[in-house]
Amino acid sequence: MTLWTYYEPVVPHTSPVDYAKALEQLHTGMRKVDVPSPRFTDRITEAEEVVADPDRSPELADADRVFLSSRLASLRRAIDDRGAVEQLLHGEPHPGNVLSTKNGLLFIDLETCCRGPVEFDLAHVPEAVCEHYPNVDQGLLDECRQLVLAMVAAWRWGLGDQFPNARRFGEEFLRALHDGPPWPTLDTMNKRLGGL
């Protein structure tokens, strides 16, 4: 017995236009859902806790610990200060969580749903997708991209992180934050490092 519906996969290539339209449809539907859900800032708190506790991130150098902690806190403030409209989001709509089916694109792995600005979701998708998503606040998107880089960097330094090549990813995500703009997308970083 299964509670899942099987969807026959089709060609894995997804156009940025189709990806943007599917994500916009998902967001439109999620605006109508009114259920208690965590805020995106809860994810920041999780990352901050890993960074703040040397027992949870023993291999993270002290200078990097200070840098990452400061970056997470300042990005939280900057995004909150914008006062952007928040809604229920997927939380991680990166390409690894998108199925290409004959019925169109479907988003999976919704356990990361949270409330926040749509730019938080857009920070997880390929750059070309954002070019086709309507009414994006580019400044907010840049801050959200930095935030995603900082959160992923923190999690990769966590003791027991089982992500393949976690330390390498942690180092490269920290380097990207140190290098500054233009901010690479999560998709760009994963492709560069041979990940998802």
Automatic annotation (TrEMBL):
A Pfam family annotated for this UniProt entry: APH
InterPro entries found in the cross-reference section: Aminoglycoside_PTrfase (IPR002575), Kinase-like_dom_sf (IPR011009)
Ranges where the Aminoglycoside phosphotransferase domain occurs: 18-131
SUPFAM superfamilies registered for this protein in UniProt: Protein kinase-like (PK-like)
Protein known as: Aminoglycoside phosphotransferase domain-containing protein
Organism field: Streptomyces lasiicapitis
